[in-house]
Amino acid sequence: MKNGKAFPIPVKAKYSCEKCPAYCCSYPEIEVTPRDIERLARHFSLDYEQAEERLTKYDAKEKVRLLRHQKDRVFDSVCALLDQKTRRCSVYHARPGVCREYPDSNRCGYYEFLKFERAHQDDPHFIALT
């Protein structure tokens, strides 16, 4: 508590999610915890079991719960909670912890990649699908 505050001072981000087509939402394994499922259940006015069934799937190999995916026009598939028109999280205030923590630094690798590709293609709207 160097500066007298209980929490660290936020680092100014060097990226803009508003310019991204939601790369992080296309990650195939978005793990959720029981607390995340509870938060989503409250958001959708569901009980825990309903939220778990509708919004997640169980990965038996890894023994974890993952958010379900949906087909996407930009990527092969994305998180089922992504609004495909706005390319933003449809449950932003109830989003899982892993999403709240991403990225865990002041730079986003996806955003850096996007900026590089747009400059390389000389197209400010280019979206790399790799």
Report, as a whole number of angstroms, the end-to-end distance. 42 Å
Largest sheet: 3 strands, antiparallel
Count of alpha/pi helices: 4
Trace the largest sheet across and list its strands: 1-3-2
Describe this protein's structure.
The mean pLDDT is 86. The chain has helices at 34-44, 48-55, 97-101, 109-121, and strands at 31-32, 56-59, 64-67, 69-71, 77-79, 82-83, 88-89. It contains four helices and seven strands. Helix 1 (34-44) crosses helix 2 (48-55). The protein has 130 residues and is of the alpha+beta class.
Summarize the structure.
This protein has 130 residues and is α+β, with helices and mostly antiparallel strands. It has four helices and seven strands, in the order E-H-H-E-E-E-E-E-E-H-H.
What order do the helices and strands come in, and which of them pair?
Layout lengths: L30 E2 L1 H11 L3 H8 E4 L4 E4 L1 E3 L5 E3 L2 E2 L4 E2 L7 H5 L7 H13 L9
Antiparallel strand pairs: 1-3, 2-3, 4-5, 6-7
